[in-house]
Amino acid sequence: MKIKVLIVDDSALIRSVMSEIIGSQPDMEVVGVAPDPLVARELIKQTNPDVLTLDVEMPKMDGLDFLERLMRLRPMPVIMVSSLTERGSEITMRALELGAVDFVTKPKLSIQSGMLEYTELIADKIRIASKARVRPRSVPVTGATQASVGVLPQVRNPLTSSEKLIIIGASTGGTEAIKNFLVQMPSDCPGILITQHMPEGFTRSFAKRLDGLCKISVSEAAGGERVLPGHAYIAPGHSHLLLGRSGANYVTQLDQGEPVNRHRPSVDVLFRSAATYAGKNAVGVILTGMGKDGAAGMLEMKNAGAYNFAQDEASCVVFGMPREAIAIGATHEVGPLNELPTKVLHYLATHGSRALRV
């Protein structure tokens, strides 16, 4: 069975190029194209697509309004087609919150030649989206709703806060998973380093959005920063993020080397650096995502004494990365996303006093 794709975009050129890309794949077919959400609504009823590609800025009905209604009334895998602008990245972050599975960016230069160069990327994202678990939009766990998930363990031990680190990796579905994890972190939690597969230009908006939602400070890593308790550092889209040491302090490092597992930033690169410089002071967390990036690095972390957690299949949008880590024995515990913050904090609260410098 071919993957049925409906393309929704107000640009005739983008509709044509996307149709050419998708139509060239032997396992896909374009079942319809729509210039706006109103036409798309009727085509969804007629064609019952497996995946929908949606421009973020649309006429007649805003793309976000359409997405919100779609995910409420007829949830389905949606890939947003976004522009590489600050506004485009902010709208895309909002679309992922509303339930979009993933996004692709329009090229800066010639649209037609640029989009054709993206053929493999777009096809891969559609294949992943067709297998994704699409759920109604979840309610963020913020201060107002935190009581509903119980009292989270507090990390008060100064040694825990200064020496322990939380190292997180994610891909498809990870922006929401990371948000739901971080909003439950108390202000005194250990420093957190995060690699989320995301292109340059979007990680800063992602960090800014999280910073406004969380008790901790969240920023895009600049490289050379001291890793502080109560702070989270997100890999920028143009570089690998690594953990390093400067004297007695942990610091962030950036590297623009070749992609690893087809990704830069790569989760494996971050996890391996944590194995080297944090050892048993690291707590690894691998979340939803396609592929195997992070599995080998997480095993290195475990072998260095780190304690590792993986998101379970039922709560993942895509179970690929956690599955690979579990399969090679890299994890200690597996659990649903809404329980992972409690599990991590409980581990830190009970093991922090034994943290040692490496």
Structure description:
The chain is of the alpha/beta class. It folds into two domains: 3-130, Rossmann fold (3-Layer(aba) Sandwich); 148-354, Rossmann fold, CATH 3.40.50.180. Helices cover 36% and strands 21% of the residues. It is built from 13 helices and 14 strands. The chain has helices at 12-23, 37-47, 63-73, 86-98, 111-117, 119-130, 158-163, 174-182, 203-211, 267-277, 295-303, 320-327, 340-351; strands spanning 3-8, 28-34, 51-55, 78-82, 102-105, 165-170, 191-196, 217-220, 231-234, 240-246, 249-255, 282-286, 307-311, 333-335. Helix 1 (12-23) runs parallel beside helix 5, helix 3 (63-73) runs parallel beside helix 4 (86-98) and helix 11 packs across helix 12. The longest helix has 13 residues, at 86-98. The termini are far apart. Mean pLDDT is 88; it is low at 139-151 and 353-358. InterPro entries: CheB-like, CheB_C, CheY-like_superfamily, Sig_transdc_resp-reg_Me-estase, Sig_transdc_resp-reg_receiver. Belongs to the CheB family.
